[in-house]
Amino acid sequence: MRVILAQPRGFCAGVVRAIEIVDRALQKHGAPVYVRHEIVHNRHVVENLRNKGARFVEELDEVPEGAVAIFSAHGVARTVERAAEERDLDVLDATCPLVTKVHVQGRQYVSQGRTLILIGHAGHPEVEGTIGQIPGTVLLVQSEADVAKLDMPLDAPLAYVTQTTLSVDDTRGIIDALLARFTDIVGPDTRDICYATQNRQAAVRELSTEVDVLLVVGATNSSNSNRLREIGSESGVPSYLVADGSEVKAEWFEGVQTVGLTAGASAPEEMVENVIDALRALGPVDVSTMSGREEKVEFKLPAKLLQPLVAREV
Ligand code: 0CJ
Ligand code: F3S
Predict the structure, then answer these.
(1) What are the residue ranges in the chain where pLDDT is below 70?
(2) What was the pLDDT predicted at 279?
(3) Which of 56, 98, 243, 271 keeps 20 to 30 A from 46, CA to CA?
(4) Which pLDDT value is given to residue 180?
């Protein structure tokens, strides 16, 4: 079988930064440090950090007063920030700067007197965080059908922002429906969908034209990874989301000559290697990488973690 690796794939700058924040916090403060929610949606990443002394919790009331607490890459609501202050926690915020940018933008629209619409998936932690960062009511829209159901005057001053990991194509449809229905609405078009999501989706769309099967390495709760699998399916290619090689099934490859392989923004490259090993167990494979966009984005760490460790001894 030929295996073609998508380019780009895997870790984005926000994920690299979030993992580095946990690593550096462990070096600086020693174990345990507490992380609210999975730092990124990947069990292998979480296990690795847990083995180094990170403790993962869903809510801050599970964190002892005064302890080090890290917010996940997906961001948190203001109520969570306030709860951290009340418990006197030493907070390190691993929210992706591109999620924070959406929070800031949403607040700006509201301060201009507009009612904010958030395009995103109900229950996702980024959506809960963004809704909770905006004062007042935020209307959640998940589909074009939801646009028709919005109970607002057609000339009401409105604005929209989006979750960062959505399908570019689906989001375009929802934005077009909003623009068609409401007369005074502003927003960033699809630019809130982050560079990493856009680039991985474009690569998969291209790869899907040349492969018989698509494998996406990622977790079932990872929004951006699910969107990659959907793009493969929508292109007519049988597409599977796998956490690692153990989930690869021989029956997917009967009569298959070319396999496309990509990874969500939270999936480690070791798991891509692990999937290739699982394919090798089925027969000889020839691995190549598609030519694709190079990414050079890097995000700064929080200032607190850039101070040299020796400073405490001076
Ligand atoms: O929401 C984000 C800032 C993306 C974080 C990296 O990906 P992942 O899989 O943890 O999160 P999504 O479920 O949002 O894709
Ligand atoms: Fe940030 Fe996008 Fe990654 S929002 S964490 S760069 S998937």
Answers:
(1) 308-314
(2) 98
(3) 98
(4) 98
Q: What is the pLDDT of residue 1?
A: 98
Q: Give me the half-sphere count of Cα atoms (radius 13 Å) on the Cβ side of residue 291.
A: 0
Q: Which residues line ligand 1 (CB under 6 A)?
A: 14-15, 40-41, 73-74, 96, 99, 126, 164-165, 222-225, 264-266
- Tokens 């769309």 locate to 205
CATH of 13-96+300-305, one of 3.30.1380.10, 3.80.30.20, 3.40.50.970, 3.40.50.11270: 3.40.50.11270
**Do residues 240 and 216 make contact, with C-beta atoms less than 8 angstroms apart?**
yes
* Fold of domain 98-192: Cobalt-precorrin-4 Transmethylase; domain 1 (3.40.1010)
The pLDDT, as a whole number, for residue 307 is: 74
E-assigned strand segments in the chain = 2-5, 33-36, 54-57, 68-71, 90-93, 115-119, 138-141, 158-162, 185-186, 213-217, 239-242, 258-263, 286-289
For the annotated catalytic residues, the residue numbers are 126
Query: Can you give the pLDDT at residue 120?
Result: 99
